[in-house]
Amino acid sequence: MLTSVDVRASLSVLGEIMQWLVVPLCVPVGAALLYGASPRPYLVTIGVALVVGTGLAQFERDRINDREAFLIVALAWLAIAVLGGLPLYIEGSGVFASPVNALFEGMSGITTTGATVIRDFDVHSRPLLLWRQVLQWLGGLGVLLLATAVLSRLSVAGAQLMETETQTKDVTKLTPGIEDTAKLLLVLYLGLTVGAAAVLYALHLVGLAPAMTGFDAVAHALTAIATAGFSPRADSVGAFSPAVQWAITAFMVVGATNFVLLYALVRGDTDRLRDSEEFRFYLAVLAVGTVLVGGLLVASEQTDAPLRHAAFQVTSIVTTTGFASVDFNAWSPATKNILFVAMFVGGMAGSTTCSIKTLRWLIVGKSFLRDLAVSAHPRSVRAVRLGPEVVDEDTIRDVYAYTLVALVIFILGTVLLVANSERAGTQLTEFEALSAAASTFFNVGPAFGQAGPYGTYAGFARSNKLLMVAMMWVGRVEIIPVLVLLTPTFWRRR
Length: 494
Prior knowledge:
Strand order of the largest sheet: 1-2
Distance between the termini: 7 Å
Helix content: 55-70%
Structural class: mainly alpha
Oligomer: single chain
Number of strands: 2
Shape: globular
Largest sheet: 2 strands, antiparallel
C-alpha cells in the first residue's frame, strides 16, 4: 500500500541542497576580502547553511517518489530565498535593515525575477551586489536542472512538449544518467556565462564600452545568461554604450533558448535548431514586438535609437530578463501596453526563462485553429503537430489548464495588491497593480509606475511585498509543485 509523502526523505534532500549553497557563498567572501569589506554576512550564512543543512541531511531517506519530488522543489526554492536574503539582512545597509525587504530581494534573486527594493545602489558594498548576481545565476542553473531532472518526470513545465519539439525522447537522458546530464548543463551554462563576460570586457578593451569594468562584465554576464535582470548599476544596462546593449540583447536571446537545442548546436547538430518550430515562433515574437515598439517610438519621437531600444526592451521583457536600456516608464501608453502583453510570453521551454513560455502559446494557437477548422468541417479529423510530431490530446489539455491557472493567479494577485494597498493607505494605480502582479508572478522584474525599470518595489506595503514573494515563488516553480501541496490528497495515505 502506498503511503503518504515521506517528509523526512524530502527534508534530507533539502539539507543536502542547503549544504551545497556554501560553494557559491564563497564568491562574496572572496570579493569581500578583495575589496576590503567585511565577510561576516556571508560567513554567518555559510554557518547557518551548514548547521541547518547537516541537521536536515541526517533524516533517513528510503525513497524519493513523485510526491517527495514536489515537496523538494517547493521547499528548495523557499529555503534558498531565505538563505539568499540572510546576508543582505545581516549587512543591514539601506533598505535591507528590514527583513521583509531582504526576503523580497532573496526571492527575487533565486527566482531570477530581477525586481528590486534597492533605492540607492551606492550604499551597498560590491560583495553584496555581487552576491545578488550570483544568486540569480544559481536560480537560472537551478531551473535548468529542475526542468530536466525533476519536472520532466512529473509532466510539469511543458517537459513532454519539449521532448516532442526537440526530438529528444527523454530530456533527463541527454546523457546516460541524470548526474551526467546535470554536469553537461552546468558546463554549457558556465561556458556561455564566461563567454558573455569575455565579450563584454573585450568591448571595454577595444574602446567600445568605456564604462564596462571587469566587475560589471562579470556581474551582467551572470544575470544575462540566467535571463534574470539584476544589475549593480542604478540605471541598469542604460549605463553602458550601444555596443554593450546589442551584445546583451544577444545574450538574453541565447539564455531564453532551449538548452537541449543549444547542446545539440554545440555538438554540431544544426538541424534541430533550424527545424524547431518553437524557435522560429520565439524569434518571430521578438521580431514582431520589436517592429511594433520601434514603430511607435519613431512615430512619437520619444527616444533616440528607437530600433536599439525597441529590440532591447522587447527582448528583455519577453525573455523575462528585466534589464533596461532606457526608462520605458516614460514611453507612450500604447508602447507600454505592448511591453505589458510581452510579460505573458516568456522564452522557450527548457531555458532559464520564466512566464508561460512560447511553446505553450504555440500549442494554444495551433489547437485553437484546429478547433475552428473542425467547427467548420465537423467530420474532419485534425491533429495538432509540432513539426512532424503529433501532440497528444492530454498534453493539449494540460497546456490549456496551466495557462488558465496562470492567468487566474495573475488576476487574483492583482486584486489582492489593490486591496492591500487600500488597506495599508499606500497609493497604487490599477495599471501599477496589473504590471507588478504580472512582473512578479511571471518573474519579469521591472513593472510600470513606481516599480518601473529605474524605480523600486521599496514603496509597496509590507503585506504586498510578502504577497509578491509568494507570487515569485509559485511562478518560478511552474505553479504545480506548490499548488499540489495544498491538496488534501497529496498528504493522504492511499
